[in-house]
Amino acid sequence: MSDEFILDTDDLERRMDGAMANLRVEFASLRTGRGSASMLEPVMVDAYGAMTPINQVGTVNVPEPRMVTVNVWDKGLVSKVEKAIRESGLGINPQLNGTIIMLPIPELNEERRRELTKVAGQYAEHARVSIRNVRRDGMDQIKKAKNDGAMSEDDQKFWETEVQEMTDKHIAGVDAALETKQAEIMQV
């Protein structure tokens, strides 16, 4: 191989991993009928004049599968935390118990489960598109180097194979994560 062109595969890998990490965050926000602390991660509270993640104003616990609790540290923020949860679009009705906000997780009906699996599919498709965009960037760099005479045809084939294998690995990861999430959602 010529040493004039070396593709930055670490950068491509990092960007593809970023798409996977983003997918995990989006999946965590999907309600599955089971309580999880991560379902509250996207909820932001107007605390002390700034939008703050809920886990920075209280302790989030899951004492039982259908219950999530938030133990708010500052009594003055309890109503703001409750309002943020109510307006978050999670479809959960918070109940106050002093500084503890209890979030009973209602049972999902069949129709809602199907809707959530479709949403999960959309999230996965966005991740696949992001990964393919990174692949296209890598392939464009390879083509440019070939056209500039910085690499031989053998090197071009080698790098294209590397990028494609990396892409296939990440797409398979997205598919596996989607399958797991959809099974989790449909589980009664």
How would you summarize what this structure contains?
The chain has helices at 9-28, 78-86, 110-147, 153-186; strands spanning 44-47, 50-53, 58-64, 67-72, 95-97, 100-104.
Provide structural commentary.
The protein is α+β, with helices and mostly antiparallel strands and 188 residues long. The chain folds into two domains: 97 residues, Ribosome-recycling factor (Topoisomerase I, Chain A, domain 4, Orthogonal Bundle), CATH 1.10.132; 71 residues, Gyrase A, domain 2, CATH 3.30.1360. The protein contains four helices and six strands. It has a four-stranded antiparallel sheet with strand order 3-4-6-5, covered by helices on one side. A two-stranded antiparallel ribbon has the order 1-2. A hairpin with a 2-residue loop joins strand 5 and strand 6. Helix 1 packs parallel to helix 4. The radius of gyration is 22 Å and the shape is elongated. The protein starts with 8 loop residues before the first helix and ends with a helix. The relative contact order is 0.18. It comes from Sedimentitalea nanhaiensis. One of its GO terms (cellular component) is cytosol. InterPro entries: Ribosome_recyc_fac (IPR002661), Ribosome_recyc_fac_dom (IPR023584), RRF_sf (IPR036191).
Poorly predicted runs of 5 or more residues: none
Q: Examine the secondary-structure arrangement and name the CATH architecture of the largest domain.
A: Orthogonal Bundle
Order of helices and strands: HEEEEHEEHH
- Share of residues in helices: 40-55%
Number of domains: 2
Give the number of helices: 4
